[in-house]
Amino acid sequence: MNFDALLAEQLEMVRSLKQRLSPSPNWRDRILSVLEGPWAPEKADLPDRTRALPGHEKGAFRVGARGYDAAVQRQTVKEAIGESERLWSLTPWTSVYEYEVPIAGLPKPLHGLTILHLSDIHFLKSSDRPWKEMSRVAEYLERGELQVDLIVLSGDVITKNPDDLCHNSLRQLRRLSAVCPQAFMVHGNHDYHGHVPAIISKHLEGVGFYDINNHHVRLTIDGAPLNIYGIDDAYFGRPESPSVIAPGETNIVLTHNLDAIREDFPQEVDLILSGHTHWGEVKFFDGSKAMKWWGYTDNINRHTKHWDMLTDRTRSYVHPGLARYYMPFKELRHPPGVAVHTLVSDERVLSNQ
Ligand SMILES: [Fe+2]
Ligand SMILES: [Fe+2]
């Protein structure tokens, strides 16, 4: 890694961002004022969210609030998943984080089900780095070095506006969905920049990533049901907790920011896949002038653990993200990357301890 060159590049990025956004003192107010402006989302061509995928049912999402008990920690299982982590470098910039994810009562057909989890790609019109990183992920799948059954994308596809989804960016996503057609996405807070998240959805559905914001899909794998629930972004979306949940089935939630998980969240969820924090990348500036200027001091969710148990049943994961902003120091400990989750039975992991 050419550390000095990277540092200079990122400092330049900070300078240019400051220049572009000046003199507005409040980034969040800027976004909100734009959201209410003449480019409001109702003018966008909304994607058809009721379309069913072949072999899938797309169902209603919410019928009413459910109770929520206090979080219960299961230390042994938490430790087990930490031991299963395998981290290796896909490119000089991007790593692959592999995990075995224990799920109690996992039906046999779902044992070994593998999920490629993408998050915080932050495509950027002025930079070819994000799509080149994604092209390496696509090569990795095309070469069959990893076979995945599902792809999920937990938001922040873009950085500033829909123009960030250039031809090259979309082409890489298409390459991924061509290898694995079961690909689903939800919006992140950055997908509301440019105030037209529906355009992001439309572009992504065009390359095979299905928008499941506040919807769910029910897959059946060799007779075993697997439900995936998408929850909209906590900050700029309208996150809704799923309540039409089958307690005896395997239930996965996809959301950008764990702050979308509210007190009425149902307990019958096995796994929540999220992103947004970039694993503390933005914390580097926490409290500094730059952080306050950008309004980022509160733009990080309250969850700092990569893996956690939110209830006795519900395990949560926060993705490191593929993007890198600001200073590169994060990379010394937590390189950006993609995650690969392999579902295994809870009992199998515990018996290995
Ligand atoms: Fe992000
Ligand atoms: Fe985010």
Chart the SSEs and their pairings.
Layout: H1 3-21, H2 27-35, E1 56-59, H3 75-84, E2 86-89, E3 95-103, E4 114-118, H4 129-142, E5 150-153, H5 167-179, E6 183-185, H6 197-206, E7 209-211, E8 216-221, E9 224-231, E10 250-255, E11 271-274, H7 289-294, E12 307-309, E13 315-318, H8 330-333, E14 337-345, H9 346-351
Helix pairs in contact: 4-5
This protein binds fe (ii) ion (FE2) (2 copies).
Key terms:
353 residues; alpha/beta; Purple Acid Phosphatase, chain A, domain 2; 7-stranded mixed beta sheet; 14 strands; 26% helix; disordered C terminus; binds fe (ii) ion
Characterize the structure shown.
It is a single chain. The chain is globular. The protein has one domain: 4-Layer Sandwich (Purple Acid Phosphatase, chain A, domain 2), CATH 3.60.21. A hairpin with a 5-residue loop joins strand 2 (86-89) and strand 3. Helices cover 26% and strands 20% of the residues. By secondary structure, the protein is α/β, with parallel strands linked by helices. The longest helix is centred in the first third of the chain and has 19 residues, at 3-21.
In short:
By secondary structure, this protein is an alpha/beta fold. 26% of the residues lie in helices and 20% in strands.
In percent terms, what proportion of residues is strand? 15-25%
Number of beta strands: 14
Order of SSEs: HHEHEEEHEHEHEEEEEHEEHEH
Strand-pairing-aware structural class: alpha/beta
What is the domain tally? 1
Q: Which cofactors or ions or other ligands sit in this model?
A: fe (ii) ion
Query: What is the CATH architecture descriptor?
Result: 4-Layer Sandwich
Enter the CATH topology name: Purple Acid Phosphatase, chain A, domain 2
Low-confidence stretches: 21-78, 282-299, 326-332, 348-353
**Distinct helical segment count:** 9
Largest sheet: 7 strands, mixed
Radius of gyration: 19 Å
Numbering strands along the chain, what is their spatial order in the largest sheet?
1-8-9-10-11-13-12
Into which percent range does the helicity of residues fall? 25-40%
What is the CATH superfamily?
Metallo-dependent phosphatases
